[in-house]
Design brief:
The protein has 262 residues and is α+β, with helices and mostly antiparallel strands. The chain folds into two domains: 77 residues, no CATH class; 148 residues, DNA integrity scanning protein, DisA, N-terminal domain (YojJ-like (1), CATH 3.40.1700.10. 52% of the residues lie in helices and 16% in strands. A seven-stranded mixed sheet has the order 4-6-5-3-7-8-9, sandwiched between helices. The chain has a two-stranded antiparallel sheet with strand order 1-2. Strand 8 and strand 9 form a beta hairpin. The chain is elongated, with a radius of gyration of 23 Å. It starts with a helix and ends in a 5-residue tail after the last helix.
Length: 262
């Protein structure tokens, strides 16, 4: 009996790891949002239902069971945006150019030249000096086609003056994000998903929230130049911070594109 009780199959271990992975990804997606509190409340109700069932309290258990059954449909409605972001994050992480992949390898190296990284960095620094608001998304592996379709396709070589002219306040393309993908300026005036993270400083506006939101659902790095202060911020993996030095910004972009960032 004891041997049968402790027998663990490989599929059992795989099952545990898959559940742990999904819960971790769900936590990352909901962390710091109002949806996290809703999810916690539902989880507490579920635990209470299990306790009621264990105590064989039939009436209250039946009522709570019906509530939880209907609640699964309500969950889909309440977490509609989060579910969409989760699926988008998985798609951008494991699909590249229509090819499914589980592991990153050398075939997906970005191929950005140091000269182009310098041009991106210089554009950010010069726009910072003139307090020109800017939002640049740089992709390493992720396909940005779905976001490029919201703006104007450019498909141009990376050029400092071109980037500056796009974000010039009287330019018809300045209101939105520039997408840099596959060593090209792919599109401009693009709409990005906006982060709902409540812990952002009050000084961060919609441009910063869009940059942060983009990194929450895609494997990208986003450079934000504040129109009010001229400060340059970098968003990466759902986090955003200010960068004040030219060399530091260049190092951050290079580290991301060459997969050596810490």
């Amino acid at each position: 009996m004891l041997t049968a009780f402790i027998h663990i199959r490989f599929l059992d271990i795989l099952d545990i790891f898959l559940v742990a992975f999904l819960l971790y990804q769900l936590y990352r997606l909901l962390k710091g949002t109002a949806a996290m509190r809703i999810f916690a409340g539902i989880f507490i109700i579920y635990l209470a239902w299990l306790l009621v069932k264990a105590m064989k309290m039939e009436l209250i258990g039946s009522i709570m069971g019906q509530v939880i059954g209907v609640g699964m449909i309500a969950l889909i409605v309440v977490f509609q945006q989060e579910i969409r972001q989760f699926l988008l994050m998985i798609g951008n992480k494991y699909v590249k150019g229509g090819a499914f992949r589980l592991l990153r390898n050398s075939r997906f190296q970005s191929g950005y030249s140091s000269a182009n990284i310098d041009r991106i960095t210089m554009a950010a620094i010069e726009m910072s000096k003139t307090k020109t608001g800017a939002l640049m998304v740089i992709s390493r592996d992720a396909s940005l086609k779905i976001f490029a379709e919201t703006g104007e396709i450019i498909n141009s070589d990376i050029n400092t003056q071109l980037i500056k002219s796009i974000f010039y306040k009287d330019s018809p393309l300045h209101d939105g994000a520039v997408l840099i993908c596959d060593n090209k300026i792919t599109a401009a005036k693009c709409i990005l998903p906006v982060s709902s993270a409540p812990e952002l400083p009050k000084g961060y506006g919609l441009r910063h929230r869009a940059g942060l939101g983009m990194t929450e659902v895609t494997d990208t790095i986003v450079i934000v130049v504040s129109e009010q202060t001229g400060h340059i911020s970098v968003a990466r993996s759902g986090r955003i911070y200010i960068v004040s030095q030219h060399e530091r910004l260049n190092k951050i972009i290079t580290g991301f594109l060459t997969k050596t960032e810490t």
